[in-house]
Design the sequence.
């Protein structure tokens, strides 16, 4: 991908590797911080508690089936919980639809992530989606298997993916668009890696996933 190659040339770093390394680095503190908030009262706490209820159920299922704890589960939880914690409105950015049904009208948003699921579209977070699509100006530009992959593809501003996605329509590399709410750009922007708000950087690290 041209954007990945240009990032490598300028910074001498691999863009996907940098993105996931920073996401992994921040995840333990963020998980601990979000759990602490979820234990309190209020609208934000309730929304976080709903996310962690689904997360904990997924972890139990993995334990019963003797699966290793999937890092993608934590990634998905953090990416959903961060804008909630910062009280940002993301209902227009995160959208969900059921597979084999009519997709929602996508023409009113410049950029969004559309998660397609096989059932229960009302869940606040989905760990095994059919696909996650990056939508720009009403057009699906790429579909990927995981939410974090969609964040990375969306951040490059390109409809091409190197992580097993299906490209539907390709945009101009580096065209530059507003990639969603500021909270999700906090982690999604690898150029600002490590520059989390002070409150997030100082959260305790002994997180129970």
Sequence:
């Amino acid at each position: 991908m041209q954007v990945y190659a240009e990032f490598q040339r300028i910074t001498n770093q691999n863009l996907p590797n940098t993105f996931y390394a920073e996401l992994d680095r921040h995840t333990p503190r963020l998980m601990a911080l979000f759990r602490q908030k979820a234990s309190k009262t209020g609208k934000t706490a309730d929304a976080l508690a709903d996310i962690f209820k689904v997360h904990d159920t997924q972890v139990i299922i993995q334990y019963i089936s003797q699966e290793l704890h999937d890092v993608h589960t934590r990634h998905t939880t953090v990416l959903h919980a961060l804008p909630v914690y910062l009280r940002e409105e993301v209902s227009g950015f995160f959208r969900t639809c059921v597979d084999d049904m009519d997709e929602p009208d996508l023409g009113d948003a410049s950029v969004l992530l559309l998660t397609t699921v096989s059932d229960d579209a009302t869940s606040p977070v989905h760990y095994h989606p059919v696909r996650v699509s990056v939508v720009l100006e009403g057009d699906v530009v790429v579909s990927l298997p995981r939410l974090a992959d969609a964040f990375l593809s969306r951040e490059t501003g390109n409809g091409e993916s190197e992580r097993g996605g299906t490209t539907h329509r390709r945009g101009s590399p580096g065209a530059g668009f507003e990639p969603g709410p500021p909270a999700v750009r906090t982690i999604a922007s690898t150029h600002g890696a490590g520059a989390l708000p002070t409150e997030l950087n100082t959260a305790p690290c002994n997180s129970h996933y």
